Amino acid sequence: MAQIIVVYHSGYGHTKVVAEKVAEGANASLIAIDEHGDIPESAWDELNAADAIIWGSPTYMGSPSWQFKKFAEATSKIWFTQGWKDKVFGGFTNSASFNGDKQVSLIALQTLASQHGGIWVSLGLLPSNSKDATRKDLNNLGGSVGLLVQSPSDASVDEIPQGDLDTAVSYGKRVAEITAKLA
Ligand SMILES: Cc1cc2nc3c(=O)[nH]c(=O)nc-3n(C[C@H](O)[C@H](O)[C@H](O)COP(=O)(O)O)c2cc1C
């Protein structure tokens, strides 16, 4: 079976919930980037062995968090040898506003995957944007590059809109299906 890893940072727990949903859909294991921007040393071996890597970060000030960026820069050692070339990659971000400049973060995650010579997986869902659409619907935020999630600024980690969480599971499944096809 394909090895899939979700590697993510979450400052206040909301992105962690999203990461868990993506991992549920992908049947993936999770690696948390800590508050210092580090992952356990053994996690690098897991990432090297993975068939697919899904990045996740909250959007802070219109970009991935500095902890995620520190991790991203640490992957430059692997970039030098193109050690992750042809792996499958996906990515997600979560922020308080509907827009909130999430796309900037997502493009940063896609670019990181491309620097590594990876194969990027898009969201693969039509937007739910009719008059009848609600926050319970799949892809109500209308993403395409990757997964977008909105956690209202006063929402606890248990109050992330259900449609976004379902979209996270769906995206995880899609990454797993595409990884299996390429295996
Ligand atoms: C320093 C900081 C900067 C933020 N910048 C943005 C932003 O640019 N756009 C936005 O929509 N939300 C922004 N937010 C809100 C967070 O993205 C949101 O609360 C998110 O759910 C936090 O995820 P976490 O609990 O995993 O840390 C910011 C929050 C913090 C703490």
TrEMBL record:
GO cellular component: membrane
Domain Flavodoxin-like: 4-176
One GO MF term attached to the UniProt entry: electron transfer activity
Short name of any one Pfam family annotated for the protein: FMN_red
Cofactor(s) needed by this chain: FMN
Claim: Transit peptide is one of the keywords in the record: no
Swiss-Prot/TrEMBL keywords: Flavoprotein, FMN
PANTHER family in alphabetical order: FLAVODOXIN-RELATED PROTEIN WRBA-RELATED, FLAVOPROTEIN-LIKE PROTEIN YCP4-RELATED
Protein name: Flavodoxin family protein
Organism field: Neptunomonas phycophila
